[in-house]
């Protein structure tokens, strides 16, 4: 079983993807993979999210496609059933935390406060998403959390863009960053896959990433 740390180490940037049309899923994933970004988070914010994940899995096998915006156990189970390689939540409930901790499934749990981190660690999570990162204090917040929580690796997400990402990636407790700037709605809606590929090229060059291949079960 691939661990969430391996998935985070595979890419400096995890695009946060919102899709309105299943037809966009495969060309978008191909553009991101062509630009060097293989780890993708498709959010459950639209009705076509899980069909999009299935389409990407079938037609873009190089992509490591996870499901984001998991807020309930039912969302989690639906994401697993759709074949997600990993899951992402913006936060946690007792029910979701308890359920996910029992599964052998890579999961990026959303945290914001020291109490969130203590709950996450107690349940066995040591790599988490900091959300919303910029709004919570950004770089200074991550530096402060590194004191009491030196073993936690973060994927900060929220308010990060191509300009600010390099500064986040310099922090020793940042494994990768998440953001929607690689696949914004205007480029997806206009089918400008080349512009998205170019954004992926720039993002994938932000930091040398692990050479360990990440394998996910089919
Ligand atoms: C998320 O869902 O993780 C965030 O909404 C992404 O934030 P951004 O749009 O500010 O990158």
Low-confidence stretches: none
Distance between the termini: 12 Å
Query: What ligands are attached or bound here?
Result: 3-phosphoglyceric acid
The beta-strand count equals: 8
- Helix and strand string, N-terminal first? HEHEHEHEHEHEHEHEHH
Rg calculated over all Cα atoms? 16 Å
Query: Mind describing the biggest β-sheet?
Result: 4 strands, parallel
What's the overall geometry?
A: globular
Which strand order does the major sheet show?
3-2-1-8
Percent in helix = 25-40%
Q: How many DSSP helices? A: 10
Keywords:
single chain, 218 residues, alpha/beta, four-stranded parallel β-sheet, 8 strands, binds 3-phosphoglyceric acid
Descriptive report:
Strand 1, helix 2 and strand 2 (about 40-45) form a beta-alpha-beta unit. The radius of gyration is 16 Å and the shape is globular. It is α/β, with parallel strands linked by helices. The protein has helices at about 5-10, 25-35, 50-60, 75-80, 95-100, 115-120, 140-145, 165-170, 185-190, 195-205; strands spanning about 15, 40-45, 65-70, 85-90, 105-110, 125-130, 155, 175-180. Helix 2 runs parallel beside helix 10. The N and C termini lie close together (about 10 Å). The chain has a 4-stranded parallel β-sheet. Strands 4-5-6-7 form a 4-stranded parallel β-sheet. The longest helix has 12 residues, at about 195-205. The protein is built from 10 helices and 8 strands. About 40% of the residues lie in helices and about 15% in strands. Bound molecules: 3-phosphoglyceric acid (3PG). The site of 3-phosphoglyceric acid has 9 residues, from strand 8.
């Amino acid at each position: 079983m691939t661990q969430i740390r391996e998935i985070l180490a595979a890419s400096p940037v995890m695009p946060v993807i919102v899709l309105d049309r299943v037809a966009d899923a495969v060309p978008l994933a191909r553009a991101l993979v062509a630009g060097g970004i293989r780890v993708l988070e498709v959010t459950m914010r639209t009705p076509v999210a899980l069909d999009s994940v299935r389409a990407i899995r079938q037609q873009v096998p190089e992509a490591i496609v996870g499901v984001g915006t998991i807020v309930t156990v039912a969302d989690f189970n639906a994401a697993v059933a759709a074949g997600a390689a990993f899951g992402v939540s913006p936060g946690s409930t007792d029910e979701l935390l308890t359920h996910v901790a029992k599964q052998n499934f890579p999961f990026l749990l959303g945290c914001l406060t020291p109490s969130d981190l203590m709950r996450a660690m107690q349940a066995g999570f040591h790599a988490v998403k900091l959300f919303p990162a910029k709004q919570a204090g950004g770089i200074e917040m991550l530096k402060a959390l590194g004191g009491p929580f030196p073993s936690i690796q973060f994927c900060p997400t929220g308010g990060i863009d191509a300009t600010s990402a390099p500064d986040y990636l310099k922090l020793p407790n940042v494994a990768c960053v998440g953001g929607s700037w690689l696949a914004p709605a205007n480029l997806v809606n206009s089918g400008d896959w080349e512009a998205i590929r170019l954004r992926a090229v720039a993002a994938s060059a932000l930091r040398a990433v692990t050479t360990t291949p990440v394998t996910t079960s089919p």
